[in-house]
């Protein structure tokens, strides 16, 4: 399916997944993820209430006015459209430096099937090839071996650990490689 044939709201597609804009109708599926202690185990804020989930969903539906090309998007299976998570690219400031984070959260019923790595790798390509980003990071709790493995499968490598929101956080990074056709042609 070409991008022009994709359903409205589609950001990108992989072999098995479609990442699309979040919609108000995604609230219950998103809250099921956000209220599950096992899924949210490594998030500093832990589980979210229904009201907190709705507030986050409303923010992502509206979009970030300063970074309209970035956000968290519904991650759904193709075909059928089953909501299995939310993944995306988020702007932020880390130690005074503007960064873009690749974020991935998959329903535990779909863990160990490679969906997180598939989404993360596609988001890295999208960030570099479509958005022109030069660097992408991932925040990973050092105790979360599965998330670290997902980051590595998407091409990111451990750069360092920092204290973020009072917690030790590993920062994985990837930088865009310069292709041969981007090198200086005057030499």
What does this structure look like?
With 187 residues, the protein is an alpha+beta fold. The protein has one domain (3-179): Aminopeptidase (3-Layer(aba) Sandwich). It is built from four helices and eight strands, in the order ββααβββαβαββ. The protein has helices spanning 27-34, 50-62, 115-130, 145-153, and strands at residues 10-13, 17-21, 71-77, 83-94, 97-106, 135-140, 157-164, 167-175. The strands form two sheets. A five-stranded antiparallel sheet has the order 1-2-3-4-5, with helices on both faces. The radius of gyration is 17 Å and the shape is globular.
Name the helix and strand elements from N-terminus to C-terminus, one letter apiece. Answer: EEHHEEEHEHEE
Number of strand segments: 8
Q: What can be said about the biggest beta sheet?
A: 5 strands, antiparallel
Q: What best-fitting shape do the alpha-carbon axes yield?
A: globular
Would you tell me the structural class of the helices and strands?
alpha+beta
Query: Regarding CATH, which class?
Result: Alpha Beta
Count of alpha/pi helices: 4
Oligomeric state as shown: single chain
How are the strands of the biggest sheet laid out side by side? 1-2-3-4-5
Terminal Cα span: 41 Å
User: Whole-number average pLDDT?
Assistant: 90
**What percent of the residues sit in helical stretches (DSSP H or I)?**
10-25%
Our Rg estimate from Cα atoms comes to 17 Å
What's the architecture in CATH terms? 3-Layer(aba) Sandwich
Contiguous uncertain segments of 5+ residues: 183-187
> How many domain regions?
1
Which fold name is given in CATH as the topology?
Aminopeptidase
Q: How much beta, percentage-wise? A: 25-35%
Report the CATH superfamily: Gcn5-related N-acetyltransferase (GNAT)
